[in-house]
């Protein structure tokens, strides 16, 4: 028998596609058609689109007007980027050049974001000049911006004039008492303000900005950083509040805190959530909020498709010498986008049809299993285990296959007691896959093979170049047939 | 009387636009204060604007050469805790 594949975007509304009915994970179920349309092919929101399209960031906005306890201002804004990363600061002119060079060479690049290295709206001139010029010179690129929210109400009017696709606000709390444990100070009306008072102002501005954007019809996504013991219990409330106001997605990201980043949380030993804790929270929030599970906390200046970074091809001196005929590039991009769209539509249809067919078949009663997948895009298993910088985590269960999250290969080195000195990259990777029972990739080397098996994660290279969901399903059925799924395993929660 | 930006500055640009006297300018390897222009914000604001937005402890000194934002004052990390963490990292 076969199982339906869950959590892809239904091709159209109406009728209950087997893939979305009754599941809590479909991000788009509750969205109005106008938003659904915008979101469906967006690399940041649509789980399947992010295998085909890409976004990039330019670092034009160095200043910030607040301090977050998970950020060290020697590095990029930790709201959008990973801590400890320094992007090359660009002038608006350089940013426009770089964006157009990338768009001409990587036609899959459809979304340009300004996310740092500080707060984009604390640098209104640099940010808005970049947007203004791109709206004029490269109108086929969607623009997005992320902000801590403090300066947001003052920027809404200007934002509404550009090709802005969406705004991301990082909202970690709606309670100033909790906020005071996350934000040590803000710069507000010519003063540095600290404590609960500062958090109260920041929260008010975030909420006001959110309301103003919604009133203007601009899409708003909300990011939250999950900080165990600080706001983890509170984020369900945040979800409720921002959804009620009209945010269309809520994305919970794990705190990443390491002493060597020199952040408050890193130095004070605040830990980040485990993959399980993060998933639990995402599951508990998804009941009342569209959750974005595939956000990769991308590096702020990364360029390229899933799992790759072609930033080196577009350094300042290289783009300086590039002659870009954007009109011609735009024609080419259009053709390529149509082809990708047709391919995606075909695959969506195929999935929906399969799901329909399989609905009648008898249901398995086995427990759910998490599996990791190594891919560089196109929705197929096409990456070598040792090359994967991140893994996609899928859950297979009698209800089908659903995408759960991304895990960075080295992300979960928490610097805590479980992290011994000199852990090898392989060991780190295996630890990042905790909870998974299989890893699917195009190839696995001998050494990792043995260590994966020893860790209870079955390496599997048999499904190279196959569509991810089908392969995960096939492996799940093999496991079920082999009787491996009859026992209740502690490490796997029946979460679907 | 003027404030001074020293090498711990991370070139974040935050101070430059908030200075009422246009005394701050981008320079290599870090931002600088034109001591002839800096008014210490007298007549404009009761507090140094640059030092009120600067995120880096110790990056801006007052006319006596003292850090306007001493260690721990912005991050909330007690200096001894920071020293401990850094020593720990060094020993690895
Ligand atoms: S908003 Fe971004 S840049 Fe500013 S302190 Fe927070 S994480 Fe850092
Ligand atoms: S103290 Fe005031 S006048 Fe002097 S550099 Fe700083 S902001 Fe400008
Ligand atoms: S605000 Fe501080 S760190 Fe930023 S440029 Fe000015 S002096 Fe340097």
TrEMBL record, chain B:
Keywords: Iron, Iron-sulfur, Metal-binding. One of its GO terms (molecular function) is metal ion binding. The keyword Iron applies. InterPro entries: 4Fe4S_Fe-S-bd, 4Fe4S_Fe_S_CS. Residues 1-29 form the 4Fe-4S ferredoxin-type domain. This is 4Fe-4S ferredoxin-type domain-containing protein.
